[in-house]
Amino acid sequence: MSLRPDDHRRKWDREEYEKLAEERRNGDKESDDEQKVKGPPIKRELLKTRDYKVDLDSKLGKSIVINKNTPTSQTGGYYCNVCDCVVKDSINFLDHINGKKHQRNLGMSMKIERSSLDSVKKRFEMNKKKIEEKKKDYDMAARMQEIAEEEEKLKEYRKEKRREKRKAEEMSEDNQVPDELISMMGFSGFGSSKKK
Questions:
Q1: 131 burial type by CB count under 10 A (0-12 exposed, 13-18 middle, 19+ buried)
Q2: DSSP character string of 68-111
Q3: Do the Cβ atoms of 109 and 46 come closer than 8 Å?
Q4: Rounded distance between C-alpha atoms, residue 126 and residue 116, angstroms
Q5: pLDDT grade, residue 123 (50/70/90)?
Q6: Which end is more exposed in the chain, N or C (fewer Cβ atoms within 10 Å of the end residue's Cβ)?
């Protein structure tokens, strides 16, 4: 540091800081040696797909009474039993499940298996078989026959409705009072504005 009173800038002692940097470098080398003594890194298995469905809807719209004696797994939110933590909403829970820390606790690395040509071909064959099974379940000829029967029933229903409507009109026409009789009685109608 400068001792002049008019010099307000701070001056650094280069020798002192070079000593500190050298000590830090030596300390890093020692810590690297300690890591080598600990042993080889743990071999984790490759990332695989989940074989279960994540339950996000079971607690939806339900209220829970929480007191100080309630275990953490039953408090509000989503509980991860692998990491022993509670996440408050579904989006963050999915982020946690798919995250690095959770996968590491499961014993998996974030690396995925590289697909080979044979595995891709097998996957295509498997998907093709699934599609063929669905086609067998969905028989086109039987479905067309069902649709034709439904249309026939609908036509018959409409014809029946028309017949009933015609019968109702014929009955109302038979019950009509002649216009001459109405005029003799002295009233023009029964309050309707409709004229024939």
A1: exposed
A2: TTS-GGGSSSEEETTTTEEESSHHHHHHHHTSHHHHHHHTEEEE
A3: yes
A4: 16
A5: very high
A6: C
